[in-house]
Specification:
Number of strands: 13
Shape: globular
Oligomer: single chain
Radius of gyration: 23 Å
Distance between the termini: 11 Å
Helix content: 40-55%
Strand order of the largest sheet: 2-3-4-1-5
Strand content: 5-15%
Number of helices: 17
Length: 450
């Protein structure tokens, strides 16, 4: 499957300032697959060491961490000479060894001539531990997320439709195959972006098979909590917070509430669990801002936030939404639930490096998403799961701050007006444009197509 993150790896490969690369990402988002595909397509040879699968490899990092010593040890362990021209070295599941992570510093400082990638499912947890000092300034970093809806469309054979949607977004005209695109969007709500789930659905068209993949991944997540969380009490709290996410998003007020985790729950009990889940890449935190002025970071109220799952397909399975929901009108009401839709939009934004925030005003108005695009005021983005878009909140924000641009993501087609109408299946187009504008690009420039 083609991943847009491949472009980032190619840019890293040719960068004159390249350092060893730390690739972050939750379990099962496709890190190993992406690295192997990158290695096969761009290097004469590569050496892949999975430190979790082969504990013998950990011995290579005992003693001196000088690159020559580490590579010599690895060569002896695997029985193969490794100092080969144009070779990529990959340390997978590197979170199991602080020594291996520390070695990256020496690979950079000693100008090791070969490219090095270190990847791990719980790197965020490890580098935030108090007993570990990450090689700051000695590595490049990259985060891999679940597949976006755009990547899902390509994987399921709808690349031509994706290109037409992008054209409609740029030209601001209605998209003729709107209903078919909405059906694909709803399918993505069930399948999500975990590569194995996308692959099995693309091959078989079986939503139940994708759901089974979700259940296997969810079990792995729970096992990781038992293995990597420090003590049994913290394990239970991490699981409680994780299991509460569907219920938190099913509320009309989707602000995270500790009492919804467990009766009488308090922030002092569950802040650590939230931090662990964030570091593991299992959740996204969307903080409230009190103003539409930029920079938004200065307007944050960190005591109020929403929590979204890292993948909308996993959320659908956790919520108990059946595959049959896609095929009947009553079932679709479940797919049109606001929390599920918000999770989808946030997922598309986060995958492109947009930090999500929401805005409220005195309990009388709420805008689901506010983002920066390089202009003087934040862009308010209202998220609606259906074609019913009547709401006063966006008007309150517009009246208060007078933003140059306002957007509504909904089940409606593209449409002009003071508030831009963008269909939910084009959320990625909006995200791409916002990033381009924020980084000094040109409106409508989405970069090279996959």
């Amino acid at each position: 499957m083609r991943r847009s993150a491949m472009r980032q790896l190619l840019e890293w490969k040719v960068s004159p300032d390249r350092k060893p690369l730390l690739l972050f990402g939750a379990r099962q988002v496709g890190k190993s697959y992406l690295i192997e595909q990158f290695a096969k397509e761009n290097y004469q040879s590569y050496a892949l060491f999975n430190l979790e699968e082969d504990p013998r490899l950990l011995q290579a990092f005992e003693g001196s961490l000088e690159p020559e010593n580490v590579i010599s040890n690895l060569s002896q362990i695997v029985g193969t000479p490794l100092d080969i021209k144009d070779m990529l070295y990959v340390f997978d599941e590197v979170q199991v060894s602080n020594r291996a992570l520390t070695a990256l510093k020496y690979f950079q400082e000693r100008s090791f001539p070969h490219p090095v990638i270190a990847a791990g499912s719980l790197l965020g947890v490890v580098v935030n531990q108090t007993d570990y000092s990450p090689p700051v300034g000695k590595v490049n970093t990259m985060v891999l997320h679940p597949m976006t809806f755009d990547e899902f469309m390509v994987a399921t054979g709808h690349e031509l439709m994706l290109n037409a949607i992008r054209d409609a977004y740029v030209e601001k005209h209605s998209y003729q195959l709107h209903e078919q695109a909405m059906d694909l969007y709803r399918t993505y709500l069930l399948v999500g972006g975990m590569p194995e789930a996308v692959d099995v659905y693309a091959r078989t068209g079986d939503l139940r098979a994708a759901e089974q993949v979700h259940r296997d991944i969810l079990n792995l997540y729970l096992a990781d909590m038992a293995k990597y969380v420090s003590n049994p009490t913290d394990v239970a709290r991490a699981r409680d917070v994780w299991n509460s996410v569907p219920g938190q998003l099913a509320k009309e007020n989707r602000k995270f509430q500790y009492k919804r985790v467990r009766s009488g729950g308090r922030s002092s009990q569950y802040e650590g669990a939230l931090s662990w889940l964030l570091s593991a890449g299992l959740i996204t935190k969307c903080v409230r801002v009190t103003s539409g002025q930029v920079p938004l970071r200065l307007q944050e109220d960190v005591s109020a936030f929403k929590v979204y799952a890292n993948d909308v397909g996993l959320l659908s399975t956790m919520s108990g939404i059946p595959a049959s929901a896609l095929f009947d009108e009553r079932g679709r009401a479940l797919l049109d639930a606001g929390g599920l839709t918000e999770n989808y939009v946030i997922q598309q934004m986060v995958a492109r490096g947009i930090e999500p925030r929401y805005w409220t005003s005195g309990g009388r108005a709420e805008v689901d998403l506010v983002v920066e695009d390089g202009s003087a005021l934040a862009v308010p983005v209202e998220i609606k799961s259906t074609e019913n878009v009547r709401s006063k909140s966006l008007g309150v924000f517009r009246e208060k701050y007078g933003p140059a641009r306002s957007v509504r993501l909904s089940a409606r087609n593209f449409g002009p007006g003071e508030v831009e109408s963008v269909p939910l299946y084009a959320a990625g187009c909006l995200a791409d444009e916002l990033v381009s504008l924020r980084d000094g690009g040109v409106a409508g420039d989405h970069g090279p197509r996959d």
